[in-house]
Amino acid sequence: MQTHFTAEQLRDPDIAASNQVLRTCVHCGFCTATCPTFRLLGDELDSPRGRIYLIKDMLESGRPASEDVVLHIDRCLSCLSCMTTCPSGVHYMHLVDHARTYIENTYRRPWHDRLLRAVLASVLPYPRRFRAALAAAGAGRAFAWLLPASHPLGKRLRAMLALAPDTLPSGGTPPGVHPAEGARKGRVALLAGCAQQVLAPGINDATIRLLTRMGVEVVVAEGAGCCGALTHHMGKHDPAIASAEANIAAWGHEIDGDGLDAIVINASGCGTTVKDYGFMFRTAPEPLRARAEQVSALAVDISEFLTRIGYAPTREPPGLTVAYHSACSLQHGQQVTIEPKALLAKAGFTVVEPADAHLCCGSAGTYNLMQPEIAGRLRERKLDTLRATSPDLIAAGNIGCIAQLAGGGLPVVHTIELLDWMAGGPEPARATD
Q: According to the 3-state scheme, what is the secondary structure of 229-245?
């Protein structure tokens, strides 16, 4: 694709990076075949190719984002299926992330949109605030009928109340060191995350149990928290960078102390972001830039790490069929596709996959809260294809997907919970829901 940025514009490192992405695109349109929103809506502007044209025009002109551009960029899930499909290697993720920041800085959203985005950014990344908000949502669900279904804010608040769980599990993942059982074979940091600690603390518990049984010391670093993805994908650059920098500092302290063999992440949405810290801090001063690159290089999904150290079950096969839902952030964002399925099969499960496994379930961070109608259609489509495999339960590697698919008639658990169970841990509570 030919671009027409001025020399002055190209001095901006973000414009320069987007220019490189744009010039990689050859207009082939292969991306439209695997884009969930294009498949649903049939509008070229709701496809990656269409959005690329909108972003190109917006950035080249230097004008504030228009209402039309915002509409179509907001509808993008950032599922990154287009990147898996693209034969030219267009790094759409960096382009759309830049567009969202540009929109945040140049476009004044309606009051209700600004309010909701501000609330989400100030609540979701903080476990205590999020837990309090979910408790309030549980109490407020009885009054959902009072919310105007025809107003965008009413629709979104109804979606939030519907997604809030009836009860919240107790527990969390405080900072600390979990010693390896027997001789120590490695040492890793675990990203405890933010929303996952509240919605499903058992995921971190299972991760720690399994790794320590396998001889790996696990540290939850003091000062580490939200990876920054939730605010990053809303275009809120400064809060996202602050979260990422806090993690880099916390893990850097561990690297310089007793050392780390890996930074293990069991929420694939977070993993995609942490693996991109090197790019996010590419213009940062030293030593931050080098430390960000070091952190990115150490980051691995839990399935990658278990494959590396030789996971092996200790229990007899349970005779269960597991439908594996491949989270977009894992299969497209990180290109991790084989390891989770191979580990589940090794653990003794019969693994099946739904049709169109590359298509998003509609979770996508805060997408199911901000675009509830599209997200709802994607959820039902995904559940239909999962049910068609006749499984006993669904396994996924991302808390957002697990929350999105819950309540669809099948138990939904994290892959690590099943692997821990088959290697000596307890049966996941949700496996028989």
A: HHHHCCCCHHHHHHHHH
